Each structure stands twice: as structure tokens, then as C-alpha cells.
Amino acid sequence: MKRRAGHLARIVALGMVVVWSLFPIYWALKTSLSTNVAAQSAPVQWWPDHVKFTAYQALFGAGPESQDAAGGIARSLINITVEATGATVLTLVVSVLGAYAFARLHFRLKGVLFYAVIATLMLPVYATLIPLYRIMADLRLVDTYAGIILVYTSGFIPLAMWIMYNVFMALPRAIEEAAFIDGATTMQAFRKVVLPTARPGIAATAIVTFLFGWSQFIFPLVLSSSTSTQPLTVLLAAIDSRNVPYTIVNAAAIVAVAVPAVIVFFLNRWIVTGITAGSVK
């Protein structure tokens, strides 16, 4: 009896956590599919009588309200995509090459340099915020895509390099030695043998990095001072809902949540396979 009661209590607790977590998303979705009048009417409607996609049409510039409704939301969608994608590509290039060098090459102070890079993961965001802003300001890269992407990359490289280092360490050296016997150089073996074999780890690193880039808030809040570079996360926090229809604000929030949710749902296998690839030799 006690075991059954405990099992029931766990189910109830889990249900409460699920409702607590998903109810705001449901409410935003319901609101985004309503008209602005219906969304703010009383009594509360738990689901719109007539589903409308006008908020999403306006958000992407296809509706009658698209000229002034979004207040730069559509632009912020482009910004967050460019910044997250740019940071992902740059992080992958640096971390894959760096991790392979640390995993396979021999040079002085290799261990010291590697652990110095990984140790930066322990630095709090606020400890690097002001120095990075000063550097970007001196380089005149504040409020630019390049500046934001470089700052993102500097924060993403340690984790990405750690993942890729473990992936490369798990690969048998025999595959590279076979390539060397066939006359391949180090870079040829890396490009034609190692990279294809490490593809699950690279995919996982890319997905995790993109998700981090999509969810950034503090750095773009400081580094982007105009809607020309502000990502969706920053604009949603600062938007004035009195000037933007309530339904469009919620539609933008749903898009912001939907992108990482869809990525995790459909690419979860790649994430798990890639991250655990270096756990067993």
C-alpha cells in the first residue's frame, strides 16, 4: 500500500511539474492563434473559437499588420539565425582543429594549454562581459554581427573543444596509421579519414552550439544597441506590448521556443550519440 501511495505521489508531482512547465507555452500558442480582441477579452477563452494565423503572417511580413506590428521582430528572427549559425560554424572550425591537435599531435605545454582552455568554462559570464565589451568597442565591433559572433565563439569553444577532444581520443589510431601507410599526410588523414568517422560527434557539437547561440541573452543585450543586430531573445524582453499586438508578441515567443524544441526532438539521437561517442574506447 505504501509503495502504491508513493508511486501515485510521484505521478502527481510529475504531472504538476509538466503542467507548470508547459502551461505558459500552451497559453502563448493559444493567444498567438487568436485575434487581438479575443486574446484580451473576458471571460477567458481556453482555446480560440476560430483559429487565426494572422499573427504569424504579420510576423513574417505577409499580413496586413506586417508594416508596423512586429516592431522589428521579423528582423530579430534573421539576426538570431545569422548570429547562432555564424557562431556555430566558427566554433566548429576552431574546436575541431584544436581538439584534433590536442588529441593527436605532440608539442610542448600541450596539457597546460588544453586545461587552460577548458578551465575557462568555470569563469562566470559576468566576469568576462565588461572586458569583452571593451575589446569589441576598441575594435568598433559593437552592434555588429561580427562582434556578436566572435563573442559567442569565445564562450562556446571550450565546451565544443572538450566534446571533440573526447570524440577524437575515442577513435582508434589504427585508422590514421593505415592512411599514413598509404602515403597520406596528417591533414589528408584528418580530412579524409578522421572527419567522416567523427561525424556524429561533430553533428552533436554543432547542435549544442547552435542551441547555445539561439538562447543567448546577456551578451547580445550588451553588445547590440539597435534592432539591426538584436536577436529575438533580447527584443522579446524589451518589446513594448502596448505598441505591438499581443498576439504577435506571443507568436514570436512560440517561434523562439519552437526552433530549439524541433531541433532537440528530431536530432536528439545525434546529440546523444555524439556526446557519448567519447565515453567508451
Task: Give an overview of the whole structure.
This protein is an all-alpha fold and 281 residues long. The mean pLDDT is 85. It is built from 13 helices and no strands. 72% of the residues lie in helices and 0% in strands. The protein is globular and about 75 Å long. Helix 1 crosses helix 13, helix 4 runs parallel beside helix 7 and helix 10 packs antiparallel against helix 13.
List keywords for this structure.
single chain; 281 residues; mainly alpha
Q: What are the low-pLDDT stretches, counting only 5+ consecutive residues below 50?
A: none
Question: Which class do the helix and strand fractions yield?
Answer: mainly alpha
Total beta strands: 0
Tell me about the biggest sheet? none
Mean pLDDT: 85
Question: So how many helices?
Answer: 13
Helix % is over 70%
β-strand percent reads under 5%
N- and C-termini, Cα separation: 46 Å
Rough outline: globular
- Rg over alpha carbons: 23 Å
List SSEs in N-to-C order. HHHHHHHHHHHHH
Write a short abstract of this structure.
With 281 residues, the protein is mostly helical. It is built from 13 helices and no strands. The relative contact order is 0.15.
